[in-house]
Write a structure and sequence with these properties.
CATH superfamily: Cytochrome P450
Distance between the termini: 62 Å
Strand order of the largest sheet: 1-2-3-9-6-4
Strand content: 5-15%
CATH architecture: Orthogonal Bundle
Low-confidence stretches: 1-7
Order of helices and strands: EHEEHEHHHHHEHHHHHHHEEEEHHEE
Number of helices: 16
CATH topology: Cytochrome p450
Number of domains: 1
Structural class: alpha+beta
Mean pLDDT: 87
Helix content: 40-55%
Radius of gyration: 21 Å
């Protein structure tokens, strides 16, 4: 049944991403989950408090069936022409957008290739890539850190995991900008989706014929009691890696550096004691995580939460950026404290959809920020922080640019 619009549904402006924490604080203070109209015209229930968010992320009455997302967009759109551009159903049917039992099967197969041991073995290569990028900055008084460190680092790591030739690596950035960013037309999204599918199908054929040591070759070859990933599932997995694995990590490197430069006392503590870096990365993930709103979920049954009932068939968005700033969970949550005893933040989600790539993402952030600061301990912002803009995406939270003065 189509949800009825009510007068207390708050309409979010397209610019709310530039000051999302102010909105989140107000919604947390106001109380339980509530209906809002997203900038692209979709009515959703927004969950902003930590304990509500954690409970919902682990609730089996919440579905992530990607094949129903487009249908729900249409049902809950303010008007048909306001619905966001649709992603191809086959590409959307990846592990992040699936429910048990299929999710369990996909995660088990992916886990056989994407092991923590394999990730740990990547450390020397990630350090080497980072050092090469930092070497290229020598002699430059100022650089744009997203373009010269964060993006090429994550693109190169992802490309090597997939075994993609160097000449094809820039295409990942173009796909990500279109498929994750806002304000793209349906035609642009369809073109990017088709490009992902065609490229990956060719890559799968190449790995079948001549498998390498890369992770994607392992994904193509992996079996579990005779079960293996189909070609369509492998295409969807690459789509997920390109969109989620690349953009979230590059944004987190930029966010982390920006947060430290705006909190010189915390930067000073880290420079004085580099052993604090692993804990600092987790605090940076909490404080300025690269995912503001978790990807869409929908209710399969009525759910009572925080004193309200979210009806079945409603779209739900969990504001991870809000939950991680909830003072009911984190004391002085709006302050960065790299020695904070965190407990459990939600930057990587929670429950069955906890980010499978979290170890790799955390490793890249730790190495990227750590080696940057070791090389340039007097790093500084090259512009007034008030002039920097956040990406116009309601999901991804990352800076468009980050100009810094190197000052060795």
């Amino acid at each position: 049944m189509q949800s009825r619009q009510t007068t207390n549904v708050e309409r979010l402006s397209a610019d709310f991403v530039q000051d999302s924490y102010t909105l989140y604080a107000r919604l947390r203070e106001a109380g339980p989950p509530r209906e809002v109209l997203m900038p692209h015209g979709i009515k959703v229930w927004m969950v902003t408090r930590y304990h509500d968010a954690r409970a919902l992320l682990g609730d089996s009455r919440i579905s992530k069936d990607g094949r129903r997302v487009n249908e729900l967009f249409t049902r809950h759109a303010e008007s048909p022409d306001r619905a966001p551009a649709e992603v191809d159903d086959d590409l959307a049917a990846h592990m992040l957008n699936s429910d048990p039992p299929n999710h369990v099967r996909l995660r088990r197969l992916v886990g056989k290739a994407f092991t923590e041991r394999r990730v740990k073995l990547l450390r020397p290569r990630i350090e080497e890539i980072t050092d090469e990028l930092l070497d290229a900055m020598v002699g430059k008084p100022e650089v744009e850190l997203i373009e010269e460190l964060a993006a090429p680092l994550t693109i190169t790591v992802l490309a090597e995991l997939l075994g993609v030739p160097p000449e094809n690596r820039k295409v990942f950035r173009a796909w990500t900008n279109t498929l994750v960013g806002a304000n793209h037309t349906a035609e642009e999204v369809a073109t990017a989706s088709a490009a992902v599918a065609r490229f990956t199908e060719d890559l799968i054929d190449a790995k079948h014929a001549d498998p390498g040591e890369d992770m994607f070759s392992a994904l193509v070859q992996v079996t579990d009691e005779g079960d293996r990933l189909t070609k369509d599932e492998l295409v969807a997995m690459v789509f997920l890696l390109v969109v989620a694995g690349h953009d979230t990590t590059l944004s987190m490197i930029g966010n982390g550096v920006f947060a430290l430069l705006r909190n010189p006392d915390q930067l000073g503590r880290l420079l004085a004691d580099p052993a604090l870096l692993p804990g600092a990365v987790d605090e940076l993930l909490r404080y300025e995580g690269s995912v503001s709103l978790a990807t869409f979920r929908f209710t399969t049954d009525d759910i009572a939460l925080g004193g309200v009932t979210i009806p079945a068939g409603e779209i739900v968005v969990v504001a991870l950026g809000s939950a991680n700033r909830d003072t009911e969970k984190f004391e002085q949550a709006d302050q960065l404290d790299i020695t904070r005893r965190l407990g459990s933040h939600l930057a990587f989600g929670h429950g069955i959809h906890y980010c499978a790539g979290a170890p790799l993402g955390r490793l890249q952030v730790e190495i990227g920020i750590g080696r940057l600061l070791a090389r340039y301990p007097r790093l500084a912002l090259a512009v007034d922080p008030g002039t920097l803009r956040w990406k116009s995406s309601t999901i991804m939270h990352g800076l468009e640019t980050l100009p810094v003065a190197l000052r060795p």
